[in-house]
Specification:
333 residues, alpha/beta, five-stranded mixed sheet, 23% strand, elongated, binds NADP nicotinamide-adenine-dinucleotide phosphate
């Protein structure tokens, strides 16, 4: 198996543990033996548990000697809750290490240099865009900025409406698209809506499996706005924890969530507009259904753009069909 194919396998491993590793990054690792065959795969275990490299090395056993470790993130070089991964790689006798993205954390960085000093051949930057824009996206953002990564997710008709004229919006998109949303909720740290959505839709904002059962992991539910919501609102049920933030300032919301990494904004057009005007959205996920609704309820209110010359510019980083719908993923242009 070549390095890129092995890195794709490492990315799959990392995707599987997203949401379970904070404050550690969700990393995947693959050990190729000296013949280039997969000898072991692994992913970061929950905090306190071994990092991806160590899991993959254990699975590879003696086949790691003389082999290549392929890792999504530069192996760490410091004693945290676990010993440095570079020590484990050197002790296992790997002759080469390939990684996608350098560790931006100054405390953990330096792994590549240490490995090179130990005579290990190091290759950096393998599929770096796929890793930095994929499983490590939110964690890298948090490391660089100190703030959580915010994804605005919404469902829309093809004419850009997020509800029919009477306010009903359940359901614009297909079951397949909604199942995708539930998978994303299950790995997110928080889901944010405005009081308007609670009043109109009364959503539970939980992550559910296709059979309707609650997923093992539930994000924190966050309601933003000055009005008081009913104690009977489903968002206050016992299925997960809920934080009510009595503000209209998106920056205050981000501050209140500063211990989180991956935040999903699922509010209506008012809150989405406020977050976009404040410039605190890092990615947009638009689930577009092949239906027309027309009418006054657009997917987003005022985003502070008065003329086309000042349009907010984004670019598509992925476009995926989901059942009869399309998922557009956008990042700042
Ligand atoms: N298609 C979709 O993906 C989707 C998703 C969610 C909702 N919806 C639809 O959207 C509609 C509800 O829309 P909505 O806009 O009322 O919901 P919203 O954006 O979730 O909530 C709006 C409320 O948020 C509060 N708020 C917080 N920060 C604010 C700010 N900076 N500026 C103004 N208000 C702020 C205000 O409440 P206070 O007065 O309490 O401060 C405001 O009324 C429903 O029809 C629902 O079905 C659709």
């Amino acid at each position: 198996m070549n390095l890129e194919a092995a890195m794709r396998l490492a990315v799959q491993q990392a995707e599987k543990v997203k949401g379970t590793t904070y404050p550690n990054p969700p990393v995947g690792a693959v050990i190729l033996d000296r013949d280039g065959e997969v000898a072991g795969v692994g992913a970061t275990e929950p905090p306190g548990g071994p990092h991806a490299e160590v899991v993959a090395l254990r699975r590879a056993g003696e086949r790691a000697a003389g082999g290549t470790a392929v890792v999504a993130l530069e192996p760490c070089n410091h004693y945290g809750r676990t010993p440095p991964c570079v020590d484990a790689l050197v002790a296992a006798g790997v002759s080469a290490v390939a990684y996608a993205v350098a560790d931006p954390n100054p405390i953990a960085a330096g792994g590549a240099a240490r490995l090179a000093e130990e005579g290990v051949a190091v290759t950096a930057g393998v599929l770096s865009d796929a890793v930095a824009g994929g499983p490590l996206r939110e964690w890298l953002h948090k490391q660089r900025t100190g703030s959580p990564h915010v994804t605005w997710k919404f469902a829309t008709s093809v004419d850009g409406r997020s509800a029919a004229a009477d306010g009903s919006s359940q359901w614009i998109t297909s079951e397949a698209a909604r199942a995708d949303v539930h998978r994303r909720r299950a790995v997110a740290d928080a889901i944010v809506v405005g009081t308007g959505t609670v009043f109109v839709d009364d959503p539970a904002l939980t992550a559910r499996l296709p059979d309707g059962a609650l997923a093992d992991r539930q994000p924190l539910r966050v309601v933003v706005g000055e009005r008081e919501i009913s104690q009977e609102a489903r968002v206050l049920n016992d299925d997960s924890r809920t934080m009510v933030i009595r503000t209209r300032d998106p920056h205050e919301v981000i501050k209140a969530l500063s211990d989180r990494t991956d935040v999903l904004l699922e509010g209506g057009p008012t809150l989405a507009g406020a977050f976009l005007r404040a410039g605190v959205i890092n990615r947009i996920l638009a689930y577009v259904a092949p239906i027309l609704l027309g009418g006054p309820i657009t997917a987003v209110d005022d985003v502070g753009v008065l003329s086309i010359a000042h349009a907010q510019r984004w670019r598509f980083d992925q476009i995926d069909p989901i059942g009869p719908d399309v998922l557009l993923s956008l990042i700042p242009g």
